[in-house]
Design a protein that fits this description.
The protein has 2 domains: 141 residues, Zn peptidases (Aminopeptidase, 3-Layer(aba) Sandwich), CATH 3.40.630.10; 124 residues, Alpha-Beta Plaits (2-Layer Sandwich), CATH 3.30.70. It is built from 8 helices and 9 strands. The longest helix is centred in the middle third of the chain and has 22 residues.
């Protein structure tokens, strides 16, 4: 509309892909990619708070299920508390996270991390629980780590801790994965990055800050699967996401349009 209002035609072909399910695994972008959607360059319009995102972390969601023996709490020594055994395993993955913190550094991204986000088990305070399940999310770094490595090290850390416990050594927990997403990283020397930097400077009057995102999104699909030069920029901020009242300010919305227009013009010249 900006080009039309100015009485000008688009200098290059611009495609707009409106997709669903970014939060549930990115199936919308995956379907678009499988349908043959492709471009010489892609901007994923996730909120970036006036910063250009050139990398995001990969992730693996784990579920760990631990068995025990249920008895009345007054007979505690005759039972096995599955929640207490699960806590031993959580300690083991915390120690793995600490080792990752010391080993892996990325110029744009925070260190790898593991978060226990869900835990449930037990029925009453008077009963030794015979089952405990917890779910975790591991965020890992592009280029320095990969999915198979993360799964192996995470699983090995859990099983090694089990060998040091009389019950867990004979009753291994069930470890499963219910969602994964690869990391994304864009070469900062690519001409598309230069085009965006110039476009941003023209629109905003100052250089853009290039950063990485701790949260993953569909950028990974367009860069890793479709093999398009990909950057992430859009109005809003990560802090506004997943809040009670999500919103984008009018100022950021209009500034983003200005930046996109300048990017289209700049990339058209390079092309």
């Amino acid at each position: 509309m900006v080009f039309r209002d100015a009485g000008k035609d688009f200098p290059i072909t611009v495609k707009y892909a409106a997709v669903c399910d970014e939060e549930g695994g990115g199936n919308g972008s995956l379907c678009a990619a499988m349908s043959g959607v492709k471009a010489d360059a892609v901007v994923v319009c996730e909120p970036t708070n006036y910063e250009l995102i050139a990398a995001h972390m990969g992730w693996v969601f784990f579920q760990v299920e631990v068995d025990g023996i249920a008895v009345h709490s007054g007979l505690k020594l005759k039972g096995v508390n599955a929640i207490e055994k699960a806590y031993l395993i959580m300690e083991a993955i915390d120690e793995l996270e600490h080792r990752w913190l010391l080993k892996y550094k990325h110029q744009l991204l925070p260190p790898p991390s593991s978060n226990v986000g869900v835990i449930y088990g037990g029925e009453a305070g008077s009963t030794i629980p015979d089952y405990c399940c917890f779910k975790t999310c591991v965020h890992y770094l592009p280029g320095l780590m990969d999915h198979d490595q993360v799964v192996k090290e995470y699983t090995d850390a859990i099983l090694k801790r089990c060998e040091g416990d009389e019950w867990l050594s004979e009753h291994k927990p069930k470890i499963s994965i219910y969602q994964t997403g690869n990391p994304f990283e864009m070469d900062l020397d690519h001409p598309f990055v230069d085009a965006f930097k110039t476009a941003y400077d023209k629109a905003m009057g100052h250089p853009v800050k290039i950063v990485g995102s701790p949260a993953g999104c569909d950028s990974r699909t367009w860069r890793n699967i479709v093999k398009c030069p990909t950057l992430q920029y859009g109005p809003g901020s990560l802090e506004q996401c997943h809040a009670v009242d999500e919103y984008v300010t009018v100022e950021q919305y209009l500034d983003a349009i200005n930046i996109y227009v300048n990017l289209i013009l700049e990339w058209a010249e390079k092309e």
